[in-house]
Amino acid sequence: MIRVQVPATSANLGPGFDAFGMAYQFYNTFFIHEKDDGKLTIRGVDRRYQGKNNLVYQAMQKVFAKVHYYPKGLSIFSEVDVPVSRGLGSSAICIVAGILAANALAGSPLSQDALFDMAVAMEGHPDNIAPAMFGGLVCAVDNGKTNLFIKNAVADCFSFHLIIPDFPLSTKAARQALPSRVSHKDAVFNVSRATMTYLALTEGRPDVLAAAMRDKLHQPYRKDLIRSYDKIHDTALRLGALGLCISGAGPTMLAVTTKDDAQTFHRDMKDYLARTEPAWDFYHLNPDNDGARLIVGDATSGEPSC
Ligand code: HSE
Asked: Domain 158-285, what fold?
């Protein structure tokens, strides 16, 4: 039995579009084992995803095909907490889980770098895959045939508040909203702020985060896809957030505060959301600095009965 737990992520963090993302202590967990009956059993997800279209299963098949390992049957049980199509990396979670679990079942023939490259090839966004796999704040670069990454722990002085709308937004639709060209000025605006956001979050510099966490490459084009974005942005800043950005491709929004301001901000923002968007979720989360965790046990341990 393999138990694999993979964190939710926020890619981009404002200016770091397609460049970096961070992981949270907010997980989906998968219990996976081989079976001799030749069947595929998938539980814990909507009936639509209980077949060979299941993303965890598809990721596993990529690894099995590469290393020529062919289990007779498979059981995949998913404990899903992270909402789908909300900009929290739920596809990356499934792909990372499937790739790590399949590699473990096959006797761990592939290196960490090979697993990372396979996951990125399948998902398409290293800024989502890297934090789901490695935790912390991770910047990643598609370097042609391989992907490079640098990971740092998120500094302890920040708190993260996720505002999760009750509607989905597909990454495809959010990418279609982007222009095919941006100005040199806007590119410079983002390069300088992305660098500063990464360093502010890892070196513990709340004093510069407010100025750094601004973006001109994607949020101005995507915000109209998210109901109430401008009002929520302005309210969050008025209530003490250092910055508010779209998490990944949206529609979830991430507000960052100092740890000292976290309780007051969370209480006041919760009141505001209860009045304006009562069906939305609002979570106060800590960063995950460890990434996906894989535990190999015996065939009867761990899986919840249902
Ligand atoms: N960086 C990607 C985007 C993440 O914003 O489109 C997609 O999950």
From this structure: Alpha-Beta Plaits (3.30.70)
